[in-house]
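From the pipeline queue, job 12 of 40. The input is one protein chain; the requested action is below.

Action: predict structure.
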Amino acid sequence: MYCINSENTLKKTCILVSALSLPFPGFWPRFVLLGLLTPNAMSDKDTEELEEKEVKPELENPQLARKPSAQTLEAIKRKQLEKYHKAPEDEKETIECNPYVIFHQALKNCQPIIGLSNITKGGKTYQVPVPLKDSRKRFLAMKWLITECRENKSRRMLMPEKLSLELLQAFNNEGPIIKKKHTLHKMAEANRAYAHFRW
């Protein structure tokens, strides 16, 4: 919404108009030349549209972002190759050496199927079992992996080493993250009687 105000300058008005990137209606040029057109504050009824801005390539460092994940995959590959060379001939075929396969399978093994949602009925809060969306499953699996590496591992180890250990344990369906997933499933099974509160 715009109003005519004789106190503002042409430069300020033009900057505001170009910043909004709106097309000029037919009556604007005369007021813009005179420096009389200025924007008003947005009313309470109007809504603002937000746009996601792309990150400029010069502000991000893709090599720095790729380094920890590349080091993690390298550590997984190194450990699996050591295991492969030490294993007898008949066991070598069962050992997976591809770090990408290990990573995706470990992440899949960490994903819970059912979660708990707090629902209040009659002044009392119940933990109700609910099925999780795929995005929520992935989020919980990654969150548990990162939290476990940050809090419960030795501080002298680097993050890629910690993450590779956790991923290898999860790949074999072992470790604290798998226990956490099973604990969540047991709690959901115990609260099965409250499932009807979901509706």
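Job complete. The chain has two domains: 2-39, 63-198.
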